[in-house]
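Suppose you are handed only two things: the residues of a chain and a line of SMILES describing 5-O-phosphono-D-xylulose. What would the bound structure be? This form records exactly that question and the answer produced for it, so the two can be stored side by side and reused later without any lookup.

QUESTION INPUTS
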Amino acid sequence: MTRSPRPRRPLIVPSVLPADFARLGEEIRELSDAGVDRIQWDVMDGAFVPNLTFGPDVIAAARPHSDVPFEAHLMVINPDELLPRYVAAGCELVIVHSEACTHLHRTLGRIRDLGARSGVALNPHTPADVVENVLSETDLVLAMTVNPGFGGQAYIPAVERKVARLRRLIDDSGLPVELEVDGGITTETIPGAAASGADVFISGSWLYAHPDGKPAAVRQLRAAAAGRYQGEAA
Ligand SMILES: O=C(CO)[C@@H](O)[C@H](O)COP(=O)(O)O
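ANSWER OUTPUT
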């Protein structure tokens, strides 16, 4: 069987959602110094999800404070018009929701045409098969392990079955598509997500609240995932 190349180690990516928005530049520098692999911006439009967060100008203002790649998780209905602005703001990866795009295949192609990598996110109830016909257009699949809109929610273990199904779809395709999980990720929940086949782990409230600081949180998450990670050299 053809297997898709996977990252050599689990990738740990913090969500900026729990940050102190009054000092975002410092917050971004702290995250970078903690050894994270990327930084995720949770972009919420107040319509697809009942919360409002970061416009592209906020992300652009934070961009000079770090060399770590930025990803934008767009929880936005029909995001096509906004894509150029998030890419111009410095996001190397732009993730859209399958449930929010009328023409998902076209939207993913537009992200790549803008010079960024593309990702597609699935809410907990959305079946894995939704991505089958767009795998060649995407660089990442994000399986939400909470319902999107807020940080600090409990991990939904039932999503692990879908993560395992997505793993098989990606492996069978032979394409270099990352598999990301997001929501309720802690040292308790990350082993199950890693064992199911995830490569990339978003952590927000647990990472920020760690009593020994962000570098310790990142190290502990990476170690807890690595014990169950089945990835191999790309
Ligand atoms: O996309 C989202 C929420 O919509 C996530 O990025 C969460 O914000 C992750 O935060 P925790 O669940 O780790 O607090």
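WHAT STANDS OUT: Residues 43 and 55 are 7 Å apart (CA to CA). The mean pLDDT is 96.
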